[in-house]
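Revision sheet: structure tokens.
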Amino acid sequence: MAYFKDEAELREILGALYDLVKTDAQVGPKICEGKIVIQFRYQEPQGVVTIEAASPPTQPNAYCDVFWNDEYQGKVDVEMSMKADIAHQFWHGKINLMTALTRKQIIAKGPIPKILKLLPAVSPVYQMYPNMLREMGREDLVLTK
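Predicted:
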């Protein structure tokens, strides 16, 4: 089952998540400590999001900047490619990053240790994401198993 019907829905939902994360006082600063630019490349549906946490933010009330598709023109430290469904499951805390990398559900280019250092920083997102979905009226996307 595809969780997102098209790129617009992917961007609406994951965009809301990334906007929440970039302004969250618990998560945002910890991501910035990694001084990393990470790009997520989604398929089925297509979408590209870049989190720029290596430079001071330019977006309002943000700890880091988030750019969609070709909005970001700088150098990326780590590129992670996956189906959008894998990202959805990951942000629910249902997918282990190392297992997904081993199974090639997620393909990473760049220094993997930098990504692994971010895992503790993003662990609060595993609760934030389903809560955000409920607030958006998208209970149908909340994974309970």
